[in-house]
Design a protein that fits this description.
Layout: H1 13-31, H2 36-43, H3 47-59, E1 63-65, E2 82-84, E3 93-99, E4 103-109, E5 115-122, H4 131-146, E6 152-159, E7 162-164, E8 169-173, E9 178-181, H5 183-190, E10 196-200, H6 201-212, E11 220-226, E12 230-236, E13 239-240, H7 271-275, H8 277-286, H9 295-303, H10 307-331, E14 335-340, H11 341-345, H12 347-360, E15 370-371, H13 379-394, H14 396-402
Parallel strand pairs: 3-6, 6-10, 11-14, 14-15
Antiparallel strand pairs: 1-2, 3-4, 4-5, 7-8, 8-9, 11-12, 12-13
Length: 421
């Protein structure tokens, strides 16, 4: 597998120190555990710069030495490997919460984005006005049960719709009826003022792919999220595009060729009206496949051998593939990541998406460019945790300062926020 590095700008003073710390941390993420000399070779930094930054990162508890893996018997000082300080050894962790419809998911992830614990919280029929308070109470109990002494970097939250991460706002979430809702602040209040960062779930998954997924994602990717909410994200050179007002990614009304599904906007053939979980669930109930409009029941029925459920999921997969073809032709990314429940659980549905996309695309004849998220069924909690981890890997020293992290020694197990979001 070819390593595709992040760009590391040359800076002076504190900017150079920050960039060098980020280069060391990301090199260990990609290649660790490895010796300091190997970090210098992979990152392009001098051995002296690596030693300085590694000392900083050790002091902050982000790196650790693994003397048991050191190579002895040679001339000179043994090469002691360095690795990220991972959760299993009481290293720092990030919490993630995805607020969805009709369920939310919680997770704890280590510095490699690996899941330590996760849980799903169903809230069918819950009042959206009080949902954040309900979710934060359950998340607080989840953290109390699973942190087990590990220091918590912060809480990442992800939600569908138009999200402004700088303000911690859900600007618009039609399915939940939220408009200009200060979701990050609401969650932080329910979590004892722990620091909460918020982003759109499609952007969060895209950033998770860039940080922890396939190397091609660092060049360019499009992520398409198909749930009750349908949206997308674009990443170029390791950066996920937000656009003015952080409004990028609304593809709910992208036209799907051959679809006649009527959309609330008044038109026919819009992507969300054709392929969302809501649309598929309602179609399945109307056809008598399931007793209630729940796409998970459709997926379960197909897995149990119900041919009608399988046929419906293949119909959706082909509709998603037609939308993917449009995105491929417009943006031509190295990778298209599709988050869609049935194709994550069963690769046959991913093949349907790939087939329809390649058949219709004018620029892509390689179905391997279309993939499911690297984290599989844990995609949503991992992505939410990445909302915290991404700034840490890009600006480790600045991010720890923003989190009011101790300047040295072991990390604290409870960090409070001055300003959520």
């Amino acid at each position: 597998m070819t390593f595709i590095p992040y760009a590391t700008p040359r800076m002076a003073g504190d900017g150079r120190r920050e960039a060098n710390a980020a280069a060391v941390l990301r090199t260990v993420l990609d290649h660790g555990p490895l010796a300091r000399s190997a970090i210098a070779r992979h990152s392009g930094l001098s051995p002296a710069a690596v030693s300085r930054q590694a000392t900083d990162l050790f002091r902050h508890g982000l790196l650790r030495e693994l003397p048991e893996l050191g190579e002895g018997g040679g001339v000179g000082r043994p090469q002691v490997p360095v690795d990220l300080h991972l959760g299993a050894s009481h290293g720092p962790v990030a919490a993630g919460v995805h607020l969805g419809v009709p369920a939310s998911s919680f997770g704890l992830v280590d510095l490699r984005g690996r899941v330590i614990a996760r849980r799903t919280m169903n809230h069918v029929g819950a009042d959206p006005r009080v949902l954040p308070a309900h979710v934060s109470r359950e998340l607080d109990a989840f953290l109390a049960e699973h942190l087990d002494g590990r220091p918590l970097l912060g809480v990442g939250a992800a939600a569908g719709g138009w999200v402004d991460p700088d303000q911690g706002l859900v600007v618009r979430h039609d399915a939940l009826g939220w408009f200009h809702r200060p979701l990050a602040a609401e969650l932080a209040r329910g979590l004892g003022r722990r620091r909460v960062r918020l982003d759109n779930h499609a952007r969060a998954i895209a950033q998770s792919e860039i940080l922890f997924g396939r190397p091609q994602a660092r060049r360019s990717l499009v992520h398409l999220f198909i749930g009750n909410v349908v949206d997308a994200a674009l990443g170029i050179a390791g950066v996920v595009h937000q656009g003015p007002g952080s409004a990028a990614g609304d593809v709910a009304h992208l036209p799907v060729p051959d679809s006649t599904a009527v959309c609330p906007c008044g038109r026919a053939g819009c992507l969300e009206a054709t392929a969302s979980n809501t649309a598929v669930g309602e179609t399945a109930q109307r056809r008598g496949i399931v007793p209630e409009p729940d796409v998970s029941l459709v997926v379960d029925a197909a897995a149990a051998g119900d041919r009608r459920a399988d046929r419906l999921l293949r119909e959706r997969a082909r509709a998603v593939g037609r939308a993917v073809a449009l995105l491929l032709d417009v943006l031509n990314p190295d990778l298209v990541v599709v988050t869609e429940q049935s194709s994550i659980l069963n690769p046959e549905y991913l093949e349907e998406i790939r087939g329809a996309a390649v058949d219709l695309s004018h620029v892509c004849d390689d179905p391997e460019r279309i993939v499911s998220p690297h984290a599989g069924p844990a995609t949503l909690p991992v992505a939410a945790g990445t909302v915290v981890l991404n700034p840490l890997f890009r600006r480790p020293l600045q991010t720890l300062q923003e989190l009011s992290w101790p300047g040295g020694g072991a990390l604290s197990t409870s960090q409070n926020a001055d300003k959520p979001g």
